[in-house]
């Protein structure tokens, strides 16, 4: 997915969420989430999964191991494109 740099400009957290939902960070963030999520899962949940003792809670933790790095990588990707909005002071 090719995105024009001007389309990445955002100013509020909601704007950033919309960009992430549109998938503009997918190519970069998904690679990072795959590596980091797999490592975290292996370290934190690997023994439980291998032993066959995984519960719903285990799988939710495993999902978080991928979602959190994806979110962090997406925010990092979008950070340089944040446009500060100055709020006029009311006197």
Question: Which helices and strands occur, and which strands form pairs?
Answer:
Blueprint: H1 13-22, H2 26-44, H3 46-51, H4 56-78
Helix pairs in contact: 2-4
Key traits:
mainly alpha, 4 helices, single chain, 91 residues
Structure description:
The protein has 91 residues and is mainly alpha-helical. It has one domain (5-81). The chain is 64% helix and 0% strand. It contains 4 helices and no strands. The protein has helices at 13-22, 26-44, 46-51, 56-78. Helix 2 (26-44) packs antiparallel against helix 4 (56-78). The model has no long low-confidence stretch (mean pLDDT 91).
Short description:
With 91 residues, the protein is mainly α. It contains 4 helices and no strands.
Question: Could you say how many structural domains there are in total?
Answer: 1
Beta strands, count: 0
- The helicity comes to 55-70%
Largest sheet: none
